[in-house]
Design a protein that fits this description.
three-stranded mixed β-sheet, 19-stranded mixed β-sheet, elongated, alpha+beta, 3 domains, 24 strands
């Protein structure tokens, strides 16, 4: 290797600035048996380098993908991944893991014993990522699937035009509302998320498998909505008409603010996180409540439990879904609940599953197999996808 050291070339590889020729040079160097220990050393250093911990996706995955295509498309799509020791609680960004996977993948391509010419490549089942979409339930019980609708009028509800505009739903008051309260419900199935504007101008983001029930005209002394799953709401200020959110055994009172509520049943708790403004949270049976400050999180484990307040919540983690990203901080079971909702799969666990804590994140716009490949490397598990059933086993 001339003109540039291995260390310099490795750094260019991680930064995504290496040319295809340089990547080929690096691959050939690490592909030699006597240099594989050096690769392990470089990779171990990268796993503990703060520049690559929770720093996003960079462009490394694109570089790796283009490299794989240029070098040989006929290689097996099941990379050989050796277990690498890493610090507990640290999960390197997805792109860096793909570098490790791709390098092992390329070694396999070079080994004629592993990859004979007449090998028949088995293609793994895969699923695309979720997308934008929702179902609007009107006051008369009709269901309107918004995924396939174009811009324009969706319905007329109690004095308001319901309009779909560039994938977002809004309520535009056009006439006098009736005295009786008329409700609509917006719900997102698994594998969908959606954004809408309520009749009072408040903005709502719905994560997968979530819902919000609301009046099509806020005519009473308070603006009351009901939520399930996970929602983020930016409330339109109106001191004369307080905004309240009701959910599974909790009530949130708002004074003009932005906040996130996670109340999925499979999590077994409610987490309300304040981004800006002020809110008062209480259990449905307790009117005293707690006043939150921006950056604080209210955690309620359900009936019989006493709510606690976390003073410095990780807002990047809490709001990652809204920005179309995964952000994980927990064991593999809690992580897979979120994955299952986004890719609309059922989970089945077999054997003893590791309970170690994992932390990190990456885009939610990857195909499922790419996500599973990353989780296999760091989670100590193996996956098998059979149509919509995802089987999780401990790695041997």
């Amino acid at each position: 290797m001339t003109g540039i050291t291995v260390k310099e070339l490795w750094e260019k590889y991680l930064q995504g600035t290496a040319t295809i020729a340089e990547l080929e040079q690096l691959r050939l160097y690490f592909g030699q048996p006597q240099n594989r220990a050096a690769f392990d050393g470089f990779l171990q250093d990268a796993f503990t380098d703060p520049r690559y911990i929770e720093t996003g996706d960079h462009n490394i995955d694109e570089v790796v993908n283009s490299l794989l295509i240029k070098l040989k498309e006929e290689a097996s799509d099941q990379p050989v991944v050796r277990r690498i020791q890493y610090r507990r609680g640290i999960w390197v960004a997805a792109s860096l893991l793909l570098v490790a996977v791709a390098t092992m993948y390329l070694w396999k391509m070079n080994d004629p014993k592993v990859h004979p010419v007449d090998t028949i490549v088995a293609v793994k089942e895969d699923l695309p990522p979720g997308g934008e979409g929702a179902i609007l339930t009107l006051s008369d019980g009709r269901h309107v699937v918004l995924d396939s609708l174009g811009n324009g009028l969706v319905a007329h509800q109690n004095g308001s035009d319901v309009v779909l505009e560039n994938g977002k739903l809004l309520y535009d008051p056009k006439g006098k509302a009736k005295n009786s309260i008329v409700y609509n419900t917006m719900s997102t199935p698994r594998g969908r998320q959606f954004q809408m504007t309520l009749p009072d101008g408040s903005k709502v983001w719905l994560n997968a498998a979530s819902s919000i029930r609301f009046p099509v005209a806020f005519t009473g002394p308070e603006r009351k909505v009901e939520v399930t799953g996970e929602v983020y709401i930016e409330v339109k200020k109106n001191a004369a008409n307080p905004f309240t959110v009701h959910g599974n055994d909790f009530v949130l009172q708002v004074l003009g603010t932005g906040f996130n509520i996670n109340s999925y049943a499979d999590n077994g708790m409610v987490k309300a996180t304040l981004v800006e403004g002020s809110v008062r949270l209480s259990r449905a049976t307790d009117s005293t409540g707690v006043l939150l400050k921006p950056g604080e999180q209210w955690v309620y484990g359900g009936k019989g439990e006493k709510p606690i307040v976390t003073k410095s919540a990780d807002l990047g983690h809490v709001l990652a879904w809204k920005n179309k990203r995964f952000s994980f901080n927990g064991n593999i079971r809690s992580i897979m609940n979120e994955v299952a909702r986004w890719y609309d799969v059922e989970l089945k666990y077999e054997g003893e599953i590791p309970e170690k804590e994992l932390e990190g994140g990456f885009t939610r716009e990857k195909e499922l197999q790419k996500v599973l490949q990353i989780l296999e490397v760091v989670g100590g598990v193996k996956f098998e996808l059979k149509e919509k059933l995802l089987i999780i086993r401990a790695s041997k």
